[in-house]
Amino acid sequence: MNDQDNPRLDAETKVAEVDHKAELRLWLRLLTCTTLIEAEVRRRLRRRFDETLPRFDLMAQLERVDTGMTLGEVSRRMMVSAGNVTSLVDRLVKAGYVERRPAPNDRRSQLIRLSHRGREHFGRMAAAHEQWVAELLADLSERDLAATMERLAKVKDSVSAAIARAGREEK
Amino acid sequence: MNDQDNPRLDAETKVAEVDHKAELRLWLRLLTCTTLIEAEVRRRLRRRFDETLPRFDLMAQLERVDTGMTLGEVSRRMMVSAGNVTSLVDRLVKAGYVERRPAPNDRRSQLIRLSHRGREHFGRMAAAHEQWVAELLADLSERDLAATMERLAKVKDSVSAAIARAGREEK
DNA sequence: TTGAGATATTTTAATCTTAAACGATTTTCG
DNA sequence: CGAAAATCGTTTAAGATTAAAATATCTCAA
Questions:
Q1: Long-range contact list for B45-53, CB < 8 A, 24+ apart?
Q2: pTM
Q3: Which one in A22, A39, A96, B108 has a CA-CA gap of 20 to 30 Å to B75?
Q4: Closest nt by CA–C1' to B95
């Protein structure tokens, strides 16, 4: 499976650029891990709480901030588009889990926060969610967890820096 | 930020279950890394090739297998639902990048593969894609890459095993 | 052989998601 | 001040995604 052992690939790719298969493999493995966990969490949220992952994620953002949060803040934190947040919030408001109110200083803006009912609903799910993730990562020791965190910190820093560079060059 | 330092959380969670914040944090970091990379790749695919990530991913699955692949195989490899693959393939067939033909032994099934045009199209994107990922992970040394791969192998194994257990218990 | 169960794909309905365009408001700065 | 630029949220159109039900076919064992 090592590309160094594959003369055909060598010959074809050596034309213009060096080989970056190791980076590619890392990215694919990262994606696999995330997709596996995400799919399982989604399945359990649906089955046990009849709830979807995006709604859970949005409520998770709101949970820590009692005073409320603007839609833009939610959008940045969740790393999803603004239009997405608009419709997601619409549905959560309709379900009675989230409340909107105008922002004090900015008439373009509004603050959203969990309703009392939303807070209870989320609390139940969050407890289960934490157990699920622990169950999925149960074979990792405390040291494994710490070491993997550090590795991923490096990944995150590298990616963030590269994106910042790309954004700067785009102008 | 350490939960051991937070007496309120301690008091509330100690009722029934131990603390699993380390696992939760790891999951969130994993998700952040993946989301960052994914969003940037998506942006570049769109900008430079007017192409979407799911279409790219599907073509990537088809690329290695010249003889063709069933929809079910694609669905399992991409870890997405079967219905999703159906519509994705429909669009790629319409675009002329993918061909369908009946499977030889099974009349329920069909084999899909890249058309000549699809192969060329994908080849161009794949080369750029590999460069992009390498750029995003540029701050990781060869040793970093290898070590992170190993860490993620453990994560993947743990998650897979837990999902298998859960599936077995579900019956 | 035949019927039960498994498998492959499609369809449907609802939700999620993005990118892009838009209107309203605020901020910046000459 | 006042115009230009930035920001906030929404809308729109297209596509992506899932879960669940439906259809067709296959497999296997009684």
A1: B45/B125, B45/B129, B48/B128, B49/B124, B49/B125, B49/B128, B51/B125
A2: 0.87
A3: A22
A4: D15
